[in-house]
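Colleagues,

Please find the record for the three-part complex below.
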Amino acid sequence: MSAAPLLEVRAIAKRFRGLQAVDDVSFAVPAGGIVALIGPNGAGKTTTFNLIAGAIAPDSGSVLLDGIDITGRRPDQACRAGIGRTFQLVKPFGGLTVLQNVMVGAFTATADRAAARQAAAEILDRLGLADKAESAARSLTLPERKRLEAARALATRPKILLLDEVMAGLRPTEIDRMVRVFSDLARDTGIAILLTEHVMRAVMALSHHIVVLHHGQKICEGTPEQVARDPQVLECYLGHGQASGPAPA
Amino acid sequence: MRAMAARDLSPRRAAALGLFVAVMLLLPLLVNAYIVSVLVVVLFSAYFGQSWNIMTGFAGQLSLGHALYVGLGAYTSAALFVHFGLLPWLGMLAGMAVAALAGGAIAALSFRFRVGGVYFALLTIAFAEFTRILFDHFGWVGATEGLFLPVANLAHDDPLRLRGSPRMFYYLLLALSLAALALSHHLLNRRVGYYWQAIREDEEAARALGIDVFRYKVAAMALSAAMTALGGGVLAFYDNNLYPDTVFAMSRSIEIITAPIIGGLGTLFGPVLGAVLLTGLGEIMTNLSNAAEISGLKQWFYGAALLAIVALQPSGLWPWLRRRLGLEEGRR
Amino acid sequence: MLYLNIIVSGLLTGAVYGLMALGLSVIFGVIRIVNFAHGEMMVLAMYGAYVVNARLGLDPLLVLPLVTLALFGLGYALQRLLINRYIARPDHEQFLLLLALATIITASLLMGFGPDARNVQLDYGYDSYQIGAILLDKVRVFAAGGAVLGAAALWSFFRFSRTGKAIRACADNQVGAQVVGLDVKRLYAVTFGLGAACVGAAGCLLLLLVDVQPYIATDYTLLAFIIVILGGLGSMPGALLGGILVGVSEALAGFLVEPSLKSAFSFGLLILVLLVRPQGLLGRA
């Protein structure tokens, strides 16, 4: 991590009714970097996402985007500051068309409908949803909905994209396709990506850097190779049979 | 699918709209005075439905107390006219401002305190009923005795002072209703319309996409309230008498919302279709039950019709009719 | 002492209101449906008791079990055959459905009985108990006693019976209830039946105190809304507390300010509670 960080998370903590969901976690995402946040269920990954995206406010610690403190901002403010997020349980605007869904996101960057439409169409094209543009969002399959989530978030022109388990429930071929989509995206646009994922195949193929959480604490971070060899990680996480080990992209 | 913003007016849709406007323009010239009076009721219902539709159909916040804004609009313009001789249209502007403030305040209070869903709906009823009872004791506007506007027998219609025949009110309301249709269409096709629909579908997702949900909900309520109040002002000068128990009535709130739901919530033309059907149905039932001399028969059929519609076409009749007529938005 | 009399009288009436609202609260708490036909169902029950009283001269208190059972059946059937199809539909469709039912009930009563007010004549209608300086109407004491018994019966049902416990499990976690094999449809029907039974009993009791006519139904629906929101939608003790609060505040407002302002008091209270504590006094946050 040589470049100045785009996103910097400094010692954030959040406690829910006696349960320390996130405990003093710090990490950084450089501009253009792809960082994965992994850990077993209940490790605090989604809570960390929610803390960064403003869905919940941290008890302590801070979140900096491009050097600006965005700690405790509302979700809409965090979005306008440059954080685009997807939801683990997808939330499509079911009554709108796919194109309109993405246009809602695009309107954050422009008030002009033609421009929003143009931007949305380009993003749908990139995510392979162009042929579904006029379908109702509620008619999409789960993999399509996952891509719609990402497309909508992308349309807000974020500096960093937060992907919350967008591979879960997908078949291996679809996973490979998503991995390609996102690595192309990062390469072509220079956008930074922070993802949580259970699918190790995707994590290993996509990320430059991995942060491992366990019981709300960061237990290790490093390159995929380093993390995969870390005894602590193997103990708490990979040992549980969830992983398929490092896999070539 | 609800509230698809029309991308472009296809020739077929343009022709249908043109035909509709032409029929509505000619209709009062062809029918008798009784039918004109029924048509005025239809247009009031359509216009109020369109105003309510912005709040509930577009932005997805169920308001069950829109009679509040009818009443505020009606009483403000009528009282300013009676007490100060203020020109009705100016009084109606004042009424719109009062209603927008009231609606905005109610929305702001509710949404700030995270009151949503059915709780919000019940809160809107509470505010309407509370205001009704207050007006029952508000001497300046006549309390339960009512507020009366002087009736002038003019030889010709005077739209500026809102004195005239039912036919004049018909055209006035037709203009308002068409304006509401144009405004709704315009808003749906702009950022604000997309934002409202996003909020209606999923607030959390809307928020994550950078939408200031609170602001847009309050704006929807204020606009909807102001539009409703404008209709309330016209109602005051059409009826010439105002009683809190009829103007602010819970039953009025219910009437306002049934037409758009029947017609198709969140659609542009649904409120108009619903108004035509429900008012028409109501008139037929009234005549039939008067003939049969059974009290309650009208309401019984009305309830049965509502039940039939909610059972057969719960998302409203307009989406269904639109398909039948081949007037769906162009899919490219 | 006059105040004390008024307060106690409001308290007793409030207990009946509480039982009525309990029905609404139970239905919402479990099925998440707002019964916009609640007052109408109660007025239907009141007419039921009225008819038996007028024909056979039976005291509404004796007819109460029968009317309660009938309303249970009505509620059960409505939920099973009609309302169940709408539980996952948007709020406005549920509203329209129940509005249609409410309209049909009121219209049917109008057709059957006309718009005039009806009441029951009881030979103990003007009797009262004297406790110290407090004078209690006999009918009010009976009504309140019945309401408390009814609420206690419902509470025991939810607390001790198998079905009651299953319904509570269902309210906490519908998916989980389905997973462990509970017949959610049947439990919902029982719940709506119980909610209707509450207004069945409350209607018989209220008939001791007030006249009945078809159009007052909406007022009772609104009253029930006020009460459950005050107490907390879905909370059983909350509904009783809300009912008593509204009963007392109505009695005091009617005496101190002006009778016609008494419901403004209740609505004002409702607005205040919704804005300060939207989950109601005893509702869970």
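Chain C has one domain: 2-276.

Comments are welcome before we finalize the supplementary table.
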